[in-house]
Amino acid sequence: MNELFSLKNKAAIVTGGTGVLGGAIAHGLAAAGATVGILGRRDKRAQQVADEITAAGGSAIVLAADVLDRESLATARDKMIEATGSIDVLVNAAGGNMPEATIHGDVTFFNMTKEAFDQVMELNLAGTLLPCQVFGEVMAEQKSGAIVNISSMASKKPLTRVLGYGNAKAAIDNYTMWLATEFAHKFGEGLRVNAIAPGFFIGDQNRAFLLNEDGSLTARGEQIISNTPMGRFGVPDELVGTTLWLASDASKFVTGVVVPVDGGFSAFGGL
After folding, report:
1. Both ends of the chain: CA-CA distance in Å?
2. 49-53, 173-177, 214-218: segment of lowest average pLDDT
């Protein structure tokens, strides 16, 4: 059973590996035996994550790159191939929201700019598309590999405020299913594409929306907890098990699915 979930001798890249969720996933992949490429724009933070993994007995490589810059992604690809000889797993954890595309306060549906909406769509959708193209091409040549995209509960249930982000993550769901079909048809059963749809986890971008300075819940945080049957926010490490399942041979016959990790949020109708 342990072998099914093992990533021993595998090479994995985590975009957004400098973030809270991406960093936790990177640690989990390394603990399962993979050499993990920590890909992000923040060099110092990427090195910190890599050092933490190494100190824990794992193997990690810093890949300085921007998910919206194909040239920097190609450089990261070449560095990973030189170090490991393959790319077996790609986790697309880079993404996020921005205040200018959030319908809250002074921003309304009517004055939100197209530029703000486009930026959120670009970061989340194109920021997943480009890594899949650059790193996925290596997998296609190998005829093996696992891609795990990061969706969101905002793709399943339209949430108030997060207009741009919700649209972008809904596009990720469709893209995941499309790419899974494309890869299986053209490159065989060894190349799989799936996604995880996290519920509500505390990260750098949403902390102030969900928690007051004293750690108590904001009104928004209270709404979320009241609609989450488990009655709490997720812990970043709780994404690791599902990621390992989708990245390993334990899910060899699984492709094109979006798995909720949400404490029951998507199952609850509010009554």
Report:
1. 39
2. 214-218
